[in-house]
Amino acid sequence: MTIYKKYINPLSHVILVVSYRIFFMSSEKIFYLDWRIQRLFGWETEKSDLVVDAIIRGIEARDDFPPVPVHYDRENIFYISPLRENAHNSQPAGGHNRAVGHFIAHVSLKCELLNGPPIWPDEMCIEIPDIRIVDDRGQYAEQRTIHLAYR
Asked: I need a labelling partner for 142 at 20 to 30 A (CA). Which of 41, 49, 51, 98 fits?
């Protein structure tokens, strides 16, 4: 199913018309998290405004983002996995920035379902919509150095 929606980017005030396809889990373990019915948790409590804005610009430009590695917990609840977090090699970092950007833009998030239960206990996790957007303290420059395709 393809959905077309119109949103205003709250960080840049640009009107964004997005189309996205809703998929559920496949045999390849890649799926698109639907923010309306599924919940995603992580462990980072705040994200840089400039980094999240760069993600949203990528969404607006229809960039193809790598999947965020996640673990399934229970019905419609997933947790970002720390098992692939390594921003200094070919793997992207955990996925918090991508998750926050896609949530703000109301666009489904491409995820890869990993085997096993969530790693972090519930009391150490925060739901993605509750992550605070804060003033950038050099994270944007660091991300641009690591990921050359960063907008």
From this structure: 41
**Taking 70 as the threshold, does the pLDDT of residue 119 lie above it?**
yes
CA distance 55 to 58: 5
For residues 114 and 69, the answer to whether their CB atoms sit within 8 Å is yes
Residues 6+ apart with CB under 8 A from 62: none
Other CB atoms within 10 Å distance of the CB of residue 5: 12
E strands of 1-151, at which residues?
2-8, 15-21, 30-33, 39-42, 46-48, 68-74, 77-80, 109-113, 126-127, 132-134
What per-residue confidence (pLDDT) applies to 18? Answer: 43
> Do the domain assignments include residue 151?
no
pLDDT band at 132 (very low <50, low <70, confident <90, very high): very high
CB 96, CB 42: distance < 8 Å: yes
138 located within any domain: yes
- Tens-place pLDDT, residues 23-44: 444 446 999 999 999 999 999 9
Contacts of 90 (CB under 8 A, 6+ apart): none
Torsion of CA 44, 38, 105, 151, to 10 degrees: 50
Count up the domains in the chain and report the number: 1
